[in-house]
C-alpha cells in the first residue's frame, strides 16, 4: 500500500485561451476532491488575474490578508522583495524557506495559496531559475496534501511554464470552437 506521502498528485489547468472555464474547473475540481472524496487539497493560483483566489475568499478577506502582509504565491517566486507602503517606509522582505510559506484555510480539506496582481511585476524581472520554484515548493508539501490544483493564466508565461514543470497531470478545458481547438493543439506542442 502506498503511503500518503507518495501519492501527491499535482494537476494544472491550462489553455492559452481565456474564457474556457479553467478557473471554474479548478475551483470545482478542488472542492469536489475535498468535499466528496475527503482529500486534502491545495489550490495554487499562479494567474496574475488571481480569479481563483477571488472565487475562494471575499475581497475584504483578501485585502486584510494583504494588509497583514500574509503570504501569496509571490513568496515562492520572488526571493528578494521590496514591500512598498504608502503609510510607512518601503522595506526589503527577507527571503524565507519555501516550507515556511503559509496557506489560507478555506474549509475542511481545502486550502489556498492566494494569487497576486504582483505577478505581473515579476514577469518582467530577470529569471534566475524562477520556473523551477513552484516545483520546489510543492516538494515541501508532500504528506500534507493529496492533490494540488494549479490555476494558470491564459497566456504563455513563466507562470504557465512553472505549472507545467511542477505538474504530473494536466487538464485542458476547451470550448467546441475552432480557436479553442487550435490553441489546444499549440498547448500539446509546448515542451
UniProtKB/TrEMBL annotation:
It comes from Pseudomonas cerasi. This is Chromosome partitioning protein. Residues 9-181 form the AAA domain. Coiled coil: none annotated. It comes from the Bacteria. The lineage of its organism: Bacteria, Pseudomonadati, Pseudomonadota, Gammaproteobacteria, Pseudomonadales.
